[in-house]
């Protein structure tokens, strides 16, 4: 298992399937701020709220030279349905093997209906133009989170 990335350190490059049909590679985004938000599951209430809010603020993120990507363990097929249902204008990344989840240490034990399960802890990471980790947000509430991240980026 990879060591957790420390604030201010360069994020290692990773490649992961993207809903746009291509392979996402972090190194391709050098020179842009990157928002990676990890969410538990497509089309669930909190994840839908979070996705809609990021989508609504997308043009403001772009004005800050920032791109937004959602990541979950869902398949690309599931992502495609989620994107179509809510008309998301950004790509979702599929981490079925949990490789990127491990890099960012977002797989945590959760309590679902009294049963312990391992799942994605809702988390967001901001990576600067030099691909260094400059923002780490964990155990977040979906509602209002996209605006919080936008403010964080504006204040960088």
From TrEMBL:
This is thioredoxin-dependent peroxiredoxin. Residues 5-156 form the Thioredoxin domain. GO terms for biological process: cell redox homeostasis; cellular response to oxidative stress. The active site is at 47 (cysteine sulfenic acid (-soh) intermediate). The keyword Disulfide bond applies. Thiol-specific peroxidase that catalyzes the reduction of hydrogen peroxide and organic hydroperoxides to water and alcohols, respectively. Plays a role in cell protection against oxidative stress by detoxifying peroxides and as sensor of hydrogen peroxide-mediated signaling events. Its EC number is 1.11.1.24. It comes from Bdellovibrio bacteriovorus. The lineage of its organism: Bacteria, Pseudomonadati, Bdellovibrionota, Bdellovibrionia, Bdellovibrionales. It catalyses: a hydroperoxide + [thioredoxin]-dithiol = an alcohol + [thioredoxin]-disulfide + H2O. It is an enzyme of class 1 (oxidoreductase). Pfam families: AhpC-TSA (PF00578).
């Amino acid at each position: 298992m990879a060591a957790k990335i420390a604030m201010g350190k360069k994020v290692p490059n990773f490649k992961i399937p993207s809903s746009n049909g291509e392979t996402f590679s972090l190194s391709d985004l050098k020179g842009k701020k990157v928002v990676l938000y990890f969410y538990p599951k497509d089309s669930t209430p909190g994840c839908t709220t979070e996705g809609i809010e990021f989508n609504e603020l997308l043009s403001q993120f772009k004005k800050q030279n920032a791109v937004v990507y959602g990541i979950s363990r869902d398949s690309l097929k599931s992502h495609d349905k989620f994107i179509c249902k809510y008309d998301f204008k950004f790509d979702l990344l599929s981490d079925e093997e949990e490789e990127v989840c491990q890099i960012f240490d977002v797989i945590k034990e959760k309590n679902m209906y009294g049963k312990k399960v391992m799942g994605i802890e809702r988390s967001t990471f901001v990576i600067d133009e030099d691909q260094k980790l400059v923002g780490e947000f964990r155990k977040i509430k979906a509602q209002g989170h996209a605006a919080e991240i936008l403010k964080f980026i504006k204040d960088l």
